[in-house]
């Protein structure tokens, strides 16, 4: 009973093939290579495809066209797998954020700050009781650097690593954009920081660049969204004990 799990973000499509909780294979594709998903499933004959997509209808269509069976796309609900969604309109929450919260809850008990450092950075507060209390959306560090290059006359697309106290334009940009990420994360951590066992769980393509700047209890789990989808698929296979209305 192999399942294909898909995390379609605004930069890349991440995927994993899982069977009875075992990860057979996984990978990441840029949008222009989505058609190669066909090779991923060849020889595996998945019985189901469960995914999150925040990259728009054209990406959903390209993924569907590459696969032998129709993907089911996750829609955030009021509760699922021990997580309660306190967004004003639960369905408006990004499906990737919802799956990441579920994956984080399954991996780590206790109060969490769940950070998705991708195209955008999301910084979400999950209480010890499993309540998603709310969170931030800000441009990711690469998007911040690109926007400075695009919308100013004098700034380049700066690349490189952060420094302590920048004394040139390139270092000022790189360090500024990374510190903006770290600062937002550290400020949101104050919501749970006083509680026993409080932990920041960091995922996403930019995690490696942000992690060294963070002065807080940290665990990196790079495939948090896919892990959440695996948890949901397992719950569903067990009869959806926690919530029968998982999918939209
Ligand atoms: N090889 C890479 N290709 C694309 N993005 C990368 C790469 N290495 C690091 N990044 C960083 O990862 C981000 C994309 O991460 P990802 O988690 O895939 O985002 P999304 O879920 O939005 O598609 C980029 O914005 C950039 O900051
Ligand atoms: C915030 C996001 C753009 C993050 O997407 P990503 O960076 O992973 O590509 C996505 O979760 C989204 O479109 N959310 C819907 C709005 C919301 O969560 O309130
Ligand atoms: K994100």
UniProtKB/TrEMBL annotation:
It is an enzyme of class 2 (transferase). Its cofactor is NH4(+); K(+). Signal peptide: none annotated. It holds the Pfam family Pan_kinase. The active site is at 96 (proton acceptor). InterPro entries: ATPase_NBD (IPR043129), Type_III_PanK (IPR004619). GO terms for cellular component: cytoplasm. Keywords: ATP-binding, Coenzyme A biosynthesis, Cytoplasm, Kinase, Nucleotide-binding, Potassium, Transferase. The keyword Cytoplasm applies. It is found in: Cytoplasm. It comes from the Bacteria. The keyword Kinase applies. HAMAP family: Pantothen_kinase_3 (MF_01274). This is Type III pantothenate kinase. The gene is coaX.
């Amino acid at each position: 009973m192999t399942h294909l799990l898909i995390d379609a973000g605004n930069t890349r499509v991440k995927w994993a093939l899982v069977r009875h909780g075992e990860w057979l294979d996984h990978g990441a594709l840029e949008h222009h290579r989505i058609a190669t998903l066909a090779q991923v499933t060849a020889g595996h004959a998945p019985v189901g495809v469960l995914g999150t997509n925040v990259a728009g209808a054209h990406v959903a269509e390209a993924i569907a066209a590459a696969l032998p069976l129709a993907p089911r796309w996750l829609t955030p609900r009021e509760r699922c797998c021990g997580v309660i969604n306190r967004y004003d309109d639960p369905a408006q929450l990004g499906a990737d954020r919802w799956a990441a919260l579920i994956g984080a809850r399954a991996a780590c008990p206790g109060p969490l700050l769940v950070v998705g450092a991708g195209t955008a950075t999301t910084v979400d507060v999950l209480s010890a009781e499993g309540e998603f209390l709310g969170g931030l959306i800000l441009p990711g560090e690469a998007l911040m650097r690109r926007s400075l290059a695009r919308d100013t006359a004098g700034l380049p697309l700066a690349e490189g690593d952060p420094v302590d106290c920048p004394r040139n334009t390139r270092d000022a940009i790189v360090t500024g954009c990374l510190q903006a990420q770290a600062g937002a994360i550290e400020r949101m951590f104050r919501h749970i920081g006083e509680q026993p066992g409080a932990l920041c769980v960091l995922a996403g393509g930019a995690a490696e660049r942000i992690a060294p700047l963070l002065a807080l209890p940290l665990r990196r789990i790079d495939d948090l969204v896919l892990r959440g989808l695996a948890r949901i698929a397992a719950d569903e296979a067990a009869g959806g004990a926690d919530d029968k209305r998982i999918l939209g």
